[in-house]
Amino acid sequence: MLVLSAWIVALPASARPWSLIPGDPTHTDVGATISFHWLIHTVGLLGSMHSRLLGYPLAVDRVVMNGFPLDVLVSTPLVKALGMPAGYTLFYVFELWLLGMSMAWLAGRWWRSPQGAAVAGVVAQTAGVVTMELEQGRTAQVFGAALLPLALGFFARALLDGQRRDAVAAGIVTGLAMLSYWYFGWFFGLALGALIPLALLERRRALLPCLWAGLAAVLVIALPLAYTLRGLEEQTGMHVTMSTIVSRRGKDIRLAELVQGLGLTWKQLLGGEYSLRPIILLLCGLGAWKARARRLAAPLLWMGVGTFSALGTWLFLPGSVRIPASFALTLNLPFLCRLLWPQRSLFLVAPAVALLAAGGTAALLRRFPRLALATWLLPVLVLTEAFALLPQLPLDSTEAAPSARAIAIGTGAGPALVLPSSSGYLRDDALILVDQVQHGRPLANWTMHPSDTNAPKAFRDFVSHGELGYLYNCEIDKNISPDDFPWSSGPSLAQIGIRDVYLDVDFLEDLGARGRAYVTCVARLLGEPRESSGPYQHHPVEPQGSHSEDSPQ
């Protein structure tokens, strides 16, 4: 059942995995995530630490920048067997199934009800925070979320019976979740920590389970964490304040305003992203009404902590900007200052809601045992309700079969530059990176415009001058000319080994005067195009001297 529901949630991409991937094609992370998966599958984990397939000619350490790619490594067998994009798309189905199964395992032991377990699995798979991450193309967060019910179950059992193996299992699962997404260490810590006072109230011993779980988690993450910390200066945004001006998708914005937009609002809460939809509300209410306090306390704590962290008490800052007070509490803490997505605290709420809904199902069965067969329809109702009420279902899909753009670039060889850039001043998407999965050529592009605050500092510095910098700056100021731009400290395109520049004129035509002004700015440097290649104006770059494309200047 949970395999089928996972396949349905991933529709329509799961029905055409050979040509579609889940996610909104206009969202940058869709292209960035498939690009990261493709990179690891192509050059391996070690190769990704110094690959120049993206951001050419620089060798940016993607493990430091993106985090340890646990989800990518798990997806590798599927991709090796089925290729791209089929294996990648079916990995979405796999991690949704894993999430449903782990939630069903926890709920089944919590309430001793198979029907309740099935309901909990589907509630977790259709949680607003999960489907929102899927819509935005992020696999790492969903994979980590699939491990949370396992950690909660093992740790709760360790607190109850004092078994070392359960505490160690909870620690291992927590460590693996951190490798998927580092900040799951914070979320898991809050969720597991909420169980400790409940255990102490029952006079259970909590110290040893905590120590064993902590030791196991540290052993799992020790080497990757040490490696990440060693290269932490390459990470962006580690020294920010609420007044810091950041650049995001071609717009300069105060960080406080950005965080305000990433926190949970009442509109989103009422719109379903909180996962409290009518049928689920009814089941949760029934579960809370009939449950013993011992089984009810933990889900209510998780729900309270997660909600406060995502919404909490609004804190008013100068300029009528409001941010979650919980975020203000973590802003000055090391590393947590980089956790700029308050909504992700809803990963704590999702298992709580699923557990309460399972409790309601179990209570319904106890009250009306003759409905045992009928209650198997509840997962179907939950799934149907999700598609009816959640704005992100059915999921958008991105075309991942070889496009005309990918075919055009694939006819050449060597490093290339595609304009305009991803997630910049002219275009929001990162479809350039989806195309790279098909043509495989090194790109001088990054996942976003180099002016973006999240771009690597080395990349931003490298393109601050020279011909590459001029072309990027044409998106910011279309009236600049090569005579006004600093050349002396920057190389030419030929000197860094770029073979071709592709200008996406089909896309630019839709921008009207803005697009034409940009084309004119580019032509001041590159001249008129020699040929058209599919939707692109193609500007071949003549090699200079004996420069090797594998030797950045």
> What's the number of helices?
25
What is the mean pLDDT? Answer: 85
- For the report, how would you describe the main beta sheet? 4 strands, mixed
Structural class: alpha+beta
The residue ranges in which pLDDT falls below 50 over 5 or more consecutive positions are 546-553
Helix percent reads: 55-70%
Multimerization state = single chain
How many strands in all? 10
Question: Keywords for this structure?
Answer:
two-stranded antiparallel sheet; about 550 residues; 2 domains; four-stranded mixed beta sheet; about 55% helix; alpha+beta
What does this structure look like?
The chain has helices at residues 2-9, 28-47, 62-66, 70-82, 86-111, 114-125, 128-135, 139-161, 164-180, 184-193, 195-201, 207-230, 255-262, 266-270, 278-290, 293-310, 325-330, 346-367, 378-389, 404-410, 431-439, 457-462, 466-473, 505-509, 513-526; strands spanning 20-22, 245-248, 251-254, 314-317, 321-324, 397-399, 416-419, 500-504, 531-533, 536-540. It contains 25 helices and ten strands. The longest helix is centred in the N-terminal third of the chain and has 26 residues, at 86-111. It is elongated and about 80 Å long. It has a four-stranded mixed beta sheet with strand order 7-8-10-9. It folds into two domains: 2-21 and 85-389, no CATH class; 404-540, no CATH class. The chain is α+β, with helices and mostly antiparallel strands and 553 residues long.
